[in-house]
Amino acid sequence: MKLPIVAYGDPVLRKKAEEIDEDYPGLKELINNMFETMYAARGVGLAAPQIGLPIRLFVVDGSPFGEDDEDGPGDPTVKDFKKVFINPMIIEESGEKWAFNEGCLSIPDIQEDVLRHPNVLINYLDENFEEHEVELTGLAARIVQHEYDHIEGKLFVDKIGPLKKAMLKGKLDAISKGIIRVGYKMKFPLQKKGR
């Protein structure tokens, strides 16, 4: 089932998410719905706060970045990068930060260059509650850092300069009011009733 994606301005996107356990109600169905929602919106990651749930859960599938396209060859390290992250904890970020143009399903039609570390060491539970500790690099590390920010109550626009953010204020306000067209279901915090 495709779920509505929460838009910029909703307080749930600013909450630090809570850990869950194996008894979280409907977890398997929730994970399946998150993947379906993410694919329908043509995303590569989706965090639970983006569907209104302040829990430490996100899903990723970097395969679109693994494909060759008109911009050149894809990144083979993310071709098969499909994972579920439950209660993740970033242990270390390392390497010289690099810029990459990021967007977000909760902040449609805005893309900006964001600096992030190229390497990340993360501990997490998978969908079977088995523990993993992995080092990720390149685009896989970036996707995970972006989604991890969501469960920490942070957004990619927090990482851009104040001038750039000021220039985006009108667009961000419009998104929070629902004055935007997207190809997927969204929930807008400030949208007037009857629209």
TrEMBL record:
Fe cation binds at C104, H146, H150. Binds 1 Fe(2+) ion. CDD domains: Pep_deformylase. Its EC number is 3.5.1.88. It is an enzyme of class 3 (hydrolase). Pfam families: Pep_deformylase. Keywords: Hydrolase, Iron, Metal-binding, Protein biosynthesis. The active site is at E147. One of its GO terms (molecular function) is peptide deformylase activity. The keyword Endoplasmic reticulum does not apply. Its cofactor is Fe(2+). It comes from the Bacteria. It catalyses: N-terminal N-formyl-L-methionyl-[peptide] + H2O = N-terminal L-methionyl-[peptide] + formate. The keyword Metal-binding applies. Belongs to the polypeptide deformylase family. Removes the formyl group from the N-terminal Met of newly synthesized proteins. Requires at least a dipeptide for an efficient rate of reaction. N-terminal L-methionine is a prerequisite for activity but the enzyme has broad specificity at other positions. This is Peptide deformylase.
